[in-house]
Amino acid sequence: MAQRTRLHYQEELESLETTALGGLDLVVQSLDRVLEAVEHQDVELAELVVADDDRIDGRYLEVHQAILTLLATQAPVATDLRLISALLHVMKCMERMGDQCVNIAKLIPLTGHDAPQRREMLDPILQMGKQVRSQVTQSKKAFIARDVELARDLVRQDDLVDDLNKECFRVAVEIGGDKDTREWALTMCFVARALERTGDNAVDIGEQVAFVVTGLFREFEDASHPGEAPTPAP
Amino acid sequence: MLDEVADKATKAAGAATGGRVGQRPGVDMSGVRDPGEQDRSSKKGRTVKTENIFELQDVSVFYGEQKAVDSVSMEIQRNQITALIGPSGCGKSTLIRCLNRMNDLIPTARVDGKVIYHEQDLYGKEIDPVEVRKRIGMVFQKPNPFPKSIFDNVAFGPRILGMDNVEDRVKHALERAALWDEVKGRMDSNAYGMSGGQQQRLCIARAIAVDPDVILMDEPCSALDPISTGKIEDLMMQLKEDYSIVIVTHNMQQAARVSDRTAFLIVELSAGEKERWGQLVEYDETDKIFTNPSDKRTEDYVTGKVG
Predict the structure, then answer these.
(1) CB B110 within 8 A of CB B274
(2) Residue A156: count of CB within 10 angstroms of its CB
(3) Which CATH number covers residue A62?
(4) Which tens digit of pLDDT belongs to each residue from A102-127?
(5) CATH number of the domain at B2-26+44-302, out of 3.40.50.300, 3.90.960.10, 3.10.520.10, 3.50.50.60?
(6) Angular region, A2: left φ>0, alpha ψ -120 to 50, beta rest
(7) Is A82 part of a structural domain of the chain?
(8) Contact between A77 and B306 using a beta-carbon 8 Å cutoff
(9) What chain A residue is nearest to B267 in terms of C-alpha separation?
(10) Separation CA B302–CA B283 (nearest Å)
(11) How many H helices and E strands in chain A?
(12) Residue A203 lies in a domain
């Protein structure tokens, strides 16, 4: 009696998810490159990151079109509908993360070839980068596994990123004695800010994981009401 | 007795058209809540008062020895569209036919459990099935006009029941069925000359003409093209202000579009698959059924993963 139907549609849906989440791998690649460029003041690598963002934008448009087609032709409902809605959000987040990498890449030439890099500032920046990279890969993993706990853990990781961001600002104030160092340190504050926003986007993807699984669309943590009870566990 | 209760309900429903849906005249609703009434947000985001028009308690239906529907309990609310969906053989048509005792006409059919209509047992000894079918009209899958003129089709019920102002009733019913403008110049022509969609609206007008309280629709659009289907759906949205509607449909998008609440039934098989019967799996707000159903079987059916 219960035989599987709409197999073609199911395949399309699965391949759509794979293509969409694959976009996060592109983000990780950009992130790796841009962090290396920051560490080594590599202007050429930074330019590559800017140019390569077209691939991320292209993926965004490709998935967006595929979603429109599925909505128009298959009238998805229930979990399928939640998945498609979530993927739209994920793609928007992915595109934003790509743009943040571009923002960072464009800052690199501004500091010049032999900028007065300082370890006490560079270290927390690179550590932030590592942390954010781990957030992005974990958001993808959580989505594939439909693992709400793993998605929720992104909030904990994001707290670490926020702390590092504050640390960067504190160091910048401290080391900004001479003009060149001040300029470099301020630029690094923008880098930290871009990384911090990327981490937030990973948390947003985690929220979509919870939405697909539970049907509840809530923020894990509300920035305007910090410390209040987040989404009830499913 | 049934007449009295239903009459009150019909009048109230009719009066409500002018004002807010579901609000009854002469009753100050501001602080009072009838038992059984509850606030709920409708599809349009308005809050409307609802009350039960039917209450099914462990309803099972048998054809001879064969069980067709197993122990369904559900409440159907007034001025709402309630959809019954499910695969072929799940008993949704059998179930909707219980609501106006159409199963009485099948000699071997037996209904167990209780169907409460306006707080009365629909299958009680004192209840007149003809009166039931007047109060609770039915529209079938295939339009079934009588081989008579358009006017006579709609006038048939009121004449038999000895109602007054037959001409006004016919006009009003055709207007309510969004058919008047299309047929007012040819009331004497044969109903068979109408298109399928018009014939179906004629059948709806015929049901409306006897002042029913509930309209049951058993796959009313499955023989119609999309335009006619759209017209019937628009009509249902208008009619629910005055009547309560229960619809059986194979078209899940239709259930999603028009209904306020949706019941999903499934076919259960006995060990050895010798017997099969219908069972209610999930009954909830339509939005919930189509965005986040609670039961895996509902999910699989509405997404079309199993057929």
Answers:
(1) no
(2) 8
(3) 1.20.58.220
(4) 999 999 998 877 788 899 999 999 99
(5) 3.40.50.300
(6) beta
(7) yes
(8) no
(9) A1
(10) 13
(11) 6, 0
(12) yes
B252–A77 CB contact, under 8 Å: yes
| The pLDDT of residue B34 is above 50 | no
Residue showing tokens 């009753």: B27
Residue A219 lies in a domain: no
Distances (CA, A) of A9 to A69, A73, A146, B250, B299: 11, 10, 20, 20, 15
* Tens of pLDDT, residues A188-216: 999 999 999 999 999 999 999 999 999 98
Q: Using an 8 Å Cβ cutoff, are B174 and B180 in contact?
A: yes
Residue A59 at interface with chain B, using a CB cutoff of 8 Å: no
- What's the pLDDT band for A224 if we cut at 50, 70, 90? confident
Alpha carbon distance B169, B212 (integer Å): 12
- Residue B307 contacts A where some CB pair is shorter than 8 Å: yes
- Which one of A77, A85, A213 makes the best mutation probe of the B interface by having the most chain B beta carbons within 10 Å? A77
Q: Identify whether A58 is part of a domain.
A: yes
Chain A contact for B293, CB < 8 A? yes
pLDDT tens-digit profile of A50-97?
999 999 999 999 999 999 999 988 889 999 999 999 999 999 999 999
Predicted model pTM: 0.78
Q: Which of A1, A80, A82, A214 to mutate to test the interface with B (most CBs of B within 10 A)?
A: A1
**What does the radius of gyration of chain B's CA atoms come to, in whole angstroms?**
19
Q: What are B240-264's pLDDT values in tens digits?
A: 999 999 999 998 999 999 999 999 9
**Whether A75 and B253 lie within 8 Å, measured CB to CB:** yes
Query: Could you tell me if B253 and B288 are in contact, meaning their C-beta atoms sit under 8 angstroms apart?
Result: no
Do B112 and B60 meet the contact criterion of CB atoms below 8 Å apart? yes
Which strands sit side by side in the sheet containing B214-218, from one edge to the other? Answer: B120-121, B109-117, B52-63, B66-77, B276-285, B261-269, B81-85, B244-248, B214-218, B136-139
Domain count of chain A?
Answer: 1
Residue A137: domain span: 7-214
Is there a contact between B292 and A77 if contact means CB atoms under 8 Å apart?
no
Place of tokens 């462990």: B58
Q: Is the ipTM of this complex over 0.85?
A: no
Q: Which of A75-79, B242-246, B293-297, B303-307 has the lowest mean pLDDT?
A: B303-307
Chain B residues with CB under 8 Å of A9 CB are 304
